[in-house]
Amino acid sequence: MRSLRRHPLFLPALLCAVAVLAARPTSAEGESGAEPGISAQVARLYEDASVAARQYEAGYQEAAAQRSRAQRAEELLARERQDIAVLNGDLGRIARAQYREGGGLPITAQLLLADSPEELMRGQRAVWQADLAVNNAIGKSRRAEERLAADEAKAQAQWQALDRRNVELAEIKRTIQVKLDEARSVLQGQADAAVGAGSCRGAVRLDQPETGSTRAWVPPVETYELSASFGSGGERWAGRHTGQDFAVPIGTPVRAAGAGRVVKVSCGGAFGIAIVVQHPGGYYTQYAHLAAVTVDQGERVAAGQWIGQSGTTGNSTGPHLHFEVRVTPELGSGIDPVPWLAARGVSL
Questions:
Q1: By C-alpha distance, which of 347, 340, 214 is closest to 283?
Q2: In this predicted model, what pLDDT tens digit does every residue of 256-270 receive, in sequence order?
Q3: What is the Cα–Cα distance from 336 to 348, expressed in whole angstroms?
Q4: pTM
């Protein structure tokens, strides 16, 4: 499966941006003739969903990194607990040694028991040194315990932030997907009604994306899974399959595979809503089972330009784009699109 190009994302900013996108209304606008209406809503939500998907993926990558940081923090906490246990053991040993060496005797008793002033001074120095060691050990232990408490709080905050972020990302993605599914259903319903009535509307004009690509040839859809291939058999076709199918959701932007001129826009029959584009060199490409078209017959198109939206009109059992390469504009002159595109630098 081909995926959209990834770009570095700043998580907090994009969370806000996607949240705004998710809040857009999806109630159907009034459509007549070639007004964009639901087609524009689907296209906009499709882009919103793409942003949400990239945001969701970036969020999980950040979550994995944060999980590693939290695990390292847990390992540090375990070492700090061990260090505190060692300090407490040292403190106990110092206290016991001080007691055995007379550190616990009152100064009056020490004066009475001392054989000489020198002995008394040596005893006092030992007591002072022991007291200093005890105080140092107590201070070190207290600082270690304070650091442990702070690190435990930090680790807990990291896990809580991770949980909140995952919940936020999942909700943003779910909200946009629900709206997109609803809009896709309306778009396909309108397409089916138009095909059934034999009165398909003209081109809807959508804002074209800024691709920045200079490639002469591109796949007809950007994100897809390949399904039925050229020449395969099936109950749905009178003969062999005449093109390459791309499994994509309803409303997916369909792109001109290369520069050319639209020579046919049809509505009805086995292909449902379909477009045929003539390219230099005597080849033609067809895009079938669409839910909407965004170009008119006779119009010139550029490689990668949106020319329609995928659907499931005509003889179709599910949403997909039926893509053909022909040597004439008519059915029956098709060749295998996969090697044809590969020869032009497009690997499916």
A1: 340
A2: 999 999 999 999 889
A3: 12
A4: 0.64
Parallel/antiparallel/unpaired status of strands 283-293 and 273-279: antiparallel
Tokens 């040993």 correspond to what residue?
A: 93
Q: Is pLDDT of 323 > 50?
A: yes
Task: Give the pLDDT confidence of 209-261 residue by residue, as tens digits.
Answer: 776 678 999 999 998 999 999 988 765 555 688 999 999 999 999 999 999 99
Taking the CA atoms of 104, 109, 112 and 118 in sequence, report the sign of the dihedral they define: positive
Kindly state the tokens that stand for 213.
């690509």
Q: What is the DSSP letter of 28?
A: P
Closest CA to 302 of 190, 212, 168: 212
Q: What 8-state DSSP symbol labels residue 318?
A: S
β-pair partners for 285:
277, 325
Which residue bears the tokens 């390219």? 279
Beta carbons within 8 Å of 3's beta carbon, 6+ residues apart: 223
Q: Where are the alpha helices (DSSP H) in the chain?
A: 11-22, 38-100, 107-113, 117-197, 337-342
Give the DSSP H or E segment for 326: strand 321-326
DSSP-based three-state secondary structure for 201: coil
Q: How far is CA 57 from the centre of its chain?
A: 3
State residue 73 phi and psi, 5-degree precision. Answer: -65, -40
**Identity of the amino acid at 17:** A
Task: Compute the Cα dihedral for 194, 200, 203, 209 and give only its sign.
Answer: positive
Nearest to 253 by CA among 303, 292, 281: 292
| In contact, 283 and 327? CB cutoff 8 Å | yes
Distance CA 11, CA 28 (A): 31
CA distance 319 to 187: 12
Rounded CA-CA distance 204/40 in Å is: 8
At residue 241, what is the residue type?
A: H
φ and ψ of 283, to 5 deg: -105, 155
Residues with Cβ within 8 Å of 190's Cβ and at least 6 positions away in sequence, in order, are: 31, 38, 291
What is the distance between the alpha carbons of residues 114 and 126, in angstroms, rounded to a whole number? 14
